[in-house]
Amino acid sequence: MASTYALPPLPYAYDALEPHISKQIMELHHSKHHQTYITNLNAALKTQAEAVHTSDITTQVSLQQAIKFNAGGHINHSLFWQNLAPASSAEAKSSAAPKLVKQIKATWGDEAAFREAFKAALLGIQGSGWGWLVKIETGKEQRLAIVTTKDQDPVVGKGEVPVFGVDMWEHAYYLQYLNGKAAYVENIWNVINWKTAEERFLGTRADAFKVLKTTI
Amino acid sequence: MNSTLLRTTTVRSALRAAAPTASTRAGLAGTTFVRGKATLPDLPYDYGALEPSISGKIMELHHKNHHNTYVTSYNNFSEQIAEAAAKNDIQAQIALQPLINFHGGGHVNHSLFWENLAPTSKGGGEPPSGKLASAINTSYGSLDAFKEKFNTALAGIQGSGWAWLVQDTQTGSVQIRTYANQDPVVGQFRPILGIDAWEHAYYLQYQNRKAEYFKAIWDVINWKVAEKRLQ
Ligand SMILES: [Fe+2]
Ligand SMILES: [Fe+2]
Ligand SMILES: [Fe+2]
Fold it and tell me: Do A127 and B161 lie within an 8 Å CB cutoff?
């Protein structure tokens, strides 16, 4: 039997991120877009399980892109909801992430320079994609990097821990910001969950992805 | 032409007046150049003219904001690449190529797109005839079967992109191809008919129900222009 994934509940209400992200966007994004990735992922995994049983290797290979895209959509959105928080909450202040902020300053000089670099990366995405702050572990060393990914490619490389991500698909902002994506990128800083970011920064890959386990 | 769409400079009017026939203009993607710069082409119909298939609000933002940003950015980066070429800076030219592809592609794609749409009152949705109709029937059996295949291709785009009916310049036959982001139809293939599958093309009206947009857009397809692009 293939695993079946289910939509994880949002850790806050649909209107909790207003005025920075509207209720309508959050509701469509979570209940429709994220759900569609899960539905399509489950369908692809079911077909794959059948292809494994029947030793149908060509079908297994042909399913890989659909699995990557839809699993990526599920992974990315699951991480995204958790790394956002209502602007009025303590989690939405970077003071909730002392160790992470220390390394951000060591890497980019100060928080403002980091935000500028992150914004430039997000606005440089050509088409649909995501921007991530990633912790990269190489042996005993670790460093931070800003990484952009196309479409729904997830950050799942060896030693890579996604700290927080921003969805740059047009569906993430269009109903509210229209073509003004720079304003969306400015405003998203008000609702980044720095507490979650700190936990992911201090934890392992498995810790960051545990949200996915709970929905199997 | 709706007067609200007129923002034509004297220079451009002069070029327009001297513009060649419609079929040649279609081949040029309706792209107009002033002193070597790309400019936003006028829409050949009002913003609201494609309703209810595409809302006036979408058309206005799509043309005035999205398309115009591609035009501005393309001009900016082509100036930079010309400067790099003048300095024989090969690395800088290579680094700029993806930006030329993206923004130049965005300009070319949208210019072709506006032209291959038309209000129903101006023939939008009227099925193709002649050579294009036979080419589609040869490759797909019928126009309905073709539309179904085209919509499947549109729905299968993972991320932003376009679906095109293209003509293979080697064999002359037509086929459906999808392109990521703003990759333009160049090289072996000739663009005949394109549909924008970026979310900005439908989101204000259809939100996540993109299949409804793909279905509705066939009512405003300008097959006459598509026929002229076929060689
Ligand atoms: Fe099984
Ligand atoms: Fe999304
Ligand atoms: Fe577009």
Answer: yes
